[in-house]
Fold this sequence. Notes:
By secondary structure, the chain is α+β, with helices and mostly antiparallel strands. The chain folds into 3 domains: 2-98; 120-178, no CATH class; 199-290, no CATH class. The protein is built from 6 helices and 17 strands. The strands form 5 sheets. The chain has a 6-stranded antiparallel β-sheet, with no helix packed on it. Strand 9 and strand 10 (226-230) form a beta hairpin. The chain is elongated. The N and C termini lie far apart (77 Å).
Amino acid sequence: xxxxxxxxxxxxxxxxFLFILFALAMAAGTFIEDAYNTDTARVIVYNxxxxxxxxxxxxxxFLGNIKRYQLHKKENWATLILHLSFILIIVGAxxxxxxxxxxxxxxxxxxxANMIYSDKPYLTVLVDGNHEGQMxxxxxxxxxxLAPEVKDDAFLNAFASNDFSMSGxxxxxxxxxxxxxxxxxxxxxxxxSETGQLMIKMVESSGGTRHEHYLKEGEVQNLHNVLFAxxxxxxxxxxxxxIAEAYTIQTPFEGDFMRMAxxxxxxxVKDSVQPLMLRSLYNIGGAQFVFPEPAIK
Length: 297
């Protein structure tokens, strides 16, 4: 019985089948990554259990060939090295998969760095509550790859299930988080409503990256250590005020602006109430920002 199993696992047909299946899996992963993203390819192919099973059978097949064909003998060392090379590659892949980690470490010229940004996405759950008479926050993290849910693609959804649950305890109170829906490339925005709250959109660039914010009427927001207030005068903040259909700006800093349509440039005077120029690039207090459109509810 043992010889039959060994013969089956080390058979040429099984080896050929594994190589064909492996090539098809790699091709599928490439097409899936091109159509969706890298995380989707990892969920369906590269990190899937069935793909790892192929690797395990490869190793078993190579070890079976070594024993079956007596590759440890001196005259067979060339073939032995080839088999051991494949085994070493697959073992290295398992080490990469389960032990090592990948990431990005940005290092500026002339500086040192000790932080790496992991390429693995994480679900972060922040639990706030009363603990021993004081408000506390506890953080729970779970490494999690998510794939897009395609309604018309039952095959993709069968292999790319996002279902998960995450349970924990905070101050003696248990909780559980479950998957509801995943929306790929989701962005946060606001919808116009007659009964909504007045908000004005602001686009700013900090660190060379574009960010969109919505300033709510009657609130003050701290954006990269610069305070912005909309219809709520605040000392030390860049105050944006709407009176009827007119907009004004008052800042505790000197600055300038450039209207994008005709490149008109002007100065912003400290502590002075001036008309706010929409669709103009402001440079005030080290912050660059634009109000591209009027406020909406």
